[in-house]
From TrEMBL:
This is 3-dehydroquinate synthase domain-containing protein. SUPFAM superfamilies: Dehydroquinate synthase-like.
Length: 345
């Protein structure tokens, strides 16, 4: 199947439901030197499969760090050094086959390096797929400090179900992206997720592929609203002592939840947040905050970060409203409500 995806004046062709080699064969330009950016884990798992998809091309691999925010300044400089040995007379394919940081790094550098070539993405997870759909490609100095930005979308995205299905340990993280989109832009879709994935058993046996087209259309109209929700709360964990007790994905997940709870404090809503939290726990999400994390320091960091960027607000679940600044009282009430609910379930 194919979808055409557009953000502003940038267009992407999405191919899914076909074997990877056949999908690529249909559009592969002649005599392109292929440069693939990946993470060690995906290189180890899929080296042979990816090589076989480019049987007549020269291929070079660059292996980035496994961390979520590998699109940082140090990694960028190392990749530029790696590219220094390639002649500018050739034409290239820059292919991101890695996590979200790899997609960001590849998309940024394809726009800025002197080598001529296209930008493609082969996502090994749905979170990488959604990262490819956001036109802002970032280089960061730290996870909470965005430094450089270029607008870029890949020419092609090849979504191979056989690759994504092997990432069973990442299904909770992938589902988080679907849940976030439902919360921000489509309440009916959030309810559909609740019905389709009521427990861990259904989560690990069912596929997300049926939702690809719907999610693509949500991102086409609201990509930045979806992905920015919860980011300030996420970044505050990196600045807080003992924030390292949370993985990068848990920082992102809890940031989403805590902004949601703050949002519910400032807007009247009929949303049954306790039922929502029970569902998340049943799915296996670790929803508790670390005991050694200072809540007061964490909230101070949220307040500091929002000085440069207001917090996104949902007027209703599934509907974005006007952004605003948080105040300390509503933030404290939101965290107290959060902790009270998780202590009961």
């Amino acid at each position: 199947m194919q979808l055409t995806y557009q953000r502003q004046d940038l267009t992407t062709q999405i191919t899914y439901g076909k074997p990877l080699a056949r999908s690529i064969e249909d559009v592969l330009p002649d005599n392109r030197h292929v440069i693939i950016l990946t993470n060690q884990r995906y290189y180890d798992q899929f080296f042979q499969k990816i090589q076989q998809a480019f049987p007549t091309n020269d291929i070079d691999w660059y292996i980035a760090r496994n961390q979520l925010y590998c699109n940082h300044l140090e990694e960028m400089m190392e990749f530029l050094q790696f590219l220094g040995r390639f002649p500018s007379s050739e034409r290239y394919l820059f292919i991101a086959f890695g996590n979200e940081g790899v997609v960001q790094l590849t998309g940024f550098l394809q726009r800025t390096v002197m080598l001529s070539g296209e930008f493609w993405v082969i996502p090994p997870s749905f979170r990488s797929f959604f990262s490819a759909l956001v036109e802002n490609k970032m280089i960061c100095k730290a996870p909470y400090n965005e430094l450089l930005q270029q607008k870029n979308l890949p020419t092609h995205i090849f979504l191979d179900q056989t690759i994504i299905q092997k990432q069973n340990d990442g299904k909770l993280v992938d589902l988080q992206m679907f849940i976030q989109a439902g919360l921000v832009s489509d309440y009916a879709f959030l309810h559909q997720l609740f019905k389709n994935f009521p427990s861990q058993k259904q989560l690990h046996t069912a596929s997300f592929m049926a939702f690809v087209e719907h999610m693509t259309r949500l991102y086409e109209t609201q990509a930045l609203a979806i992905t920015s929700y919860g980011t300030i709360y996420e970044k505050a964990f990196y600045l807080t002592e003992n924030g390292h007790l949370l993985s990068a994905y848990m920082k992102r997940f809890l940031g989403l939840l805590l902004q949601l709870f703050w949002n519910l404090e400032i807007n009247d809503s009929t949303f049954r947040v306790e039922n929502f939290m029970v569902w998340l726990k049943k799915l296996g999400y670790p929803i508790e905050l670390p005991e050694r994390l200072s809540i007061s320091e964490y909230l101070e960091n949220v307040l500091t970060l929002q000085e440069n960027q207001k917090l996104s607000v949902l007027s209703e679940i599934g509907e974005t409203g006007a952004s605003c600044f948080a105040n300390e009282k509503t933030m404290i009430r939101a965290v107290e409500r959060y902790q009270k609910i998780i202590s009961k379930i």
